[in-house]
Amino acid sequence: MNARRGFTLVEMVVAIIVLGIVGITFGVFIVPAIKANQDVERRAALIDSAEIAVRRMARDIRIALPNSVRVSYVAGTGFAIEMIPTVDGGRYCLSGDANCASAAQLLAIGGSDTDFDILGCFHNATFTGATFPSTAFRLVIGDSNGAVYSASGSTAVVTPASTSITLSTVNGGGAGSGACGASSGATPPTSYRHHIALSVGQTFPNGSSRRRVFIIQTPVTYICNIAAGTVTRYYNYSISATAPTPTSPPAGATSALVTDRVSDCSVATLTTDVQAQGYVKLSLSLASAGETVQLNHETQLDNSQ
Question: Where are the domains of the chain?
């Protein structure tokens, strides 16, 4: 006859005590460690997201057309930062420059002109590799106060969107032909440079203090909406005299989410007019499950034109 076996009361009590000790040990030592690790991972994810957002905004601000950054900030609501990124740039030919003499080489400031040379070459493949003639790009010259947003027509600081641009390589005065930037066969040798031709004459009313010509396409706006907890990038829309606000994105723009979980944000400049000082300070706070991180980033603009 088989004896029946089971747990005695003492064994059950001992088992309960052991399990209790294991549970207390787990709760005291292991759970906090797991939670701390989760907090670190959550904080790192917030920092990464905030850094990506801030650096993306700063990059577009740094390459913006001089005097094109517009800032709208409402405490507790958010901010809107609009700018026109430059695709490329160069220095236009004036009389007295090396081998710049003919009407086709010189830019006529204050008078209608359809073509001119730059000193050297453009380098951005987005522009130099385009199919010309092209209406995908516009020229800006002599914008010292943000007039690119309000000016239009054949006497503006920016060429109309309907004006097509042709880019070609021309001889800087020597013989033969070659790639832009290469030396010609003349004695002494000169360099090949880029030539811009416009389909319609343009009268740039003001010269650039540094004789710069900028190639642009369309504006970009970043909007921080605290209520929605997002930072969104708006692009591929037309230049408008009306500046975006935290609650009024640019009309007709394509949008892309930059980051979410935004709990607060702000933007500051040295003066009320960012175009005058060329300085922007961004502040972005992200929060998740009780964790909050704040990043501050200062960006210097090149407002010389």
Answer: 43-83+219-300, 86-216
